[in-house]
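Entry 12.
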Amino acid sequence: MKKYIVALLLGLSSFLQAQNSISGKVTNSQNNPLAGVIVDAPELHKSTKTDENGLYTLTQLPNGDVTLAFSFVGFASQNQRVVKVQNTPILDVVLEEMAFQMDEVIVSTPFSKLQSQNVMKVDRQSIKSMHEKGSATLIEGLATIPGVSQVSTGTSIGKPVIRGLSGNRVLVYSQGVRIENQQFGDEHGLGLNDAGVENVEVIKGPASLLYGSDALGGVLFFNPEKFAAANTFQGDFGQRLFSNTLGSNTTLGLKASTDNWKYLIRGAYTTQSDYKIPDGDRVTNTRYQEMDFKAGIGYSNAKFSSVLRYNYNNLDLGIPEEGIADQTTSKKTAFPKQGVYNNLFSLNNTLFFSNSKMDVNLGYIRNDRNEFEDSNVAVLHMILNTFDYNVKYYLPTLGKFETIVGVQGMSQQNKNLGEEYLIPNAVTNDFGIFGTGIYSWGSNSLQAGIRFDNRHLVSDEHGIIDEEGYFEALDKKYDSFNASLGYKTDLATDLTFRLNAATGFRAPNLAELSSNGIHEGTFRYEVGNPNLKTEQNLQTDLDLEYKISHFEFSVSGFYNHINDYIYAAPSGEELDGVKVYDYIQNNANLYGGEVALHIHPHPLDWLHFETSFSTVTGKLQSGGFLPQIPANNWNNTLKTDFILGKWLEDGFATLNVSTTFSQNNVSGYDISSDGYTLLNMGFGGKVKFGKTAFDINLNGNNLLNKTYVPHLSRLATAGIPNIGINGVLGIAFKF
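Predicted 3D structure (tokens):
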């Protein structure tokens, strides 16, 4: 017994370890100190800045290994992995000048690598850059990323599409928690507001190894805003105005930090009228209002880091059914409409041991979705409660080999309280176990992993047999093994090559298994199939990237084979004057890719030219095309950077020409769409008046007032165009 007590005390002493600190100096290649460099320890949610002498200090660091990220505008970011912090009190860093944007630590993939070091290519877009483009909504901003598009209902509802896959095939994470909001419905938006979100990472392709079911097509990982630097207080206010919808968006945030404690709070409110199409008419009942509230509290020391966050989102959305009807600029939604209320709690913890660590992330989301037809009594009322967990243990590093093992899962309950049912009451339980490792040598990295998942779904019987709205009771179990293998190397100086192969899976959702009635959101009678099997895919990705100080070029290609792809196909019958669609399965193939070029010519350091092209083709193996495949897009941007006297810093002006091609490869309920070209312009920067400074941007979107109907618009079947010319004015300042 005595030896066990001694072992326990030794283990406890390694956990209750002494505090450590790291200090150092950050300079440029000419050995000049750099002031204002951000030094971030992301695992601890702790950061600081270098002083006027380039000096920094981070305190209360754990024993073992810690990753520090050094970033500064105009310089290449560095990711320094400090082995055994207790033996490294001093760490000096030299940053190299780099014309392009900073390289950042990728959070959505394991091992905390910079994107330049990552085996898997991940696209990252900051919310600030989306605002500078004049994007009115979060999903509209995401759709500017090559390979990403949206299924939209006017300006109010948008669902992300990654390389032709959407809905339950794209998993969304916010605050480290998977978002569950009945995403099977085409008219169901994300229910996320961009206030309090710092950036989004996009994984294009199967990420089931990391996230389980529903990540078959990719992942959107929204990173929340960081806390204030240690021992500082910060506030900010932002206001955006939209000319077309006579709308506004307001946000106010406050945050403060000590050495150990961190706090933040943020509120946002958006209101929009019906949007105006190029002929001057407004599309009736596309108006909406949104309230969003976020709060966070964190604590960290040398033993652990813990962050609790909360997000409440309230959406009041009009449902456009009549198209061009009553003309009004009212912002009060009319019937029919949706009311969606989301509550999201997340608890993110990191425990530090002597030479390893463990992440324990817990989340709870309550999605309360209501649909009102002609009164304030909801005819459709669904409540989805989801608890999810994600535990990862980072084993001690063995030389150049890093390993992670983990368990992940969720428990979910869907409950109907309204008169109408889209899907039955049901309980879903997921459990997954996985392991992944990476071996790095020189400029090479080899990463592999394997995972097993089980989903158990039980639903209740409801309704009268052989009548609309009847659901039979289900008790289904789905198992899946998945694996991934990736390799990254530098073929030459500044030339990076990546090759990844991964499998993914998706269990059929409740709508696909049990639908039996008219789905108002898609204007068809849907019949589910309880015998559907799990979708299983294999995708191969190839990426080649060349990057020097004034020139960047990348090309990415993919081939995605999906066994038992689930889709709705017309049966040829009609019920109550509505076409009947059955959920069926067939093998499918999707292929395509993206090409991007960024030129920053020297000595014209103020000039940028960016161009990108994205394409995807989706085909059934038995012949014909997949429905809802986005059209090809070619996007071109000319940008200038400048300073005007002492009153405008970080100035920019942009000219954007975006061409979307026609889409004639259609199937099922799709209709062909014509191509179109949009002209957009932007201007902004940091305005200074003495000690007062604020950011401003002015955008004009669809400046030629082009009439166009996107292929993935849910209003396309009625021939209703998208938004006409729209001016956006944004002002933001910190205090």
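Annotation: The CA atoms of residues 565 and 585 lie 5 Å apart. The domain at 2-98 is CATH 2.60.40.1120 (Immunoglobulin-like).
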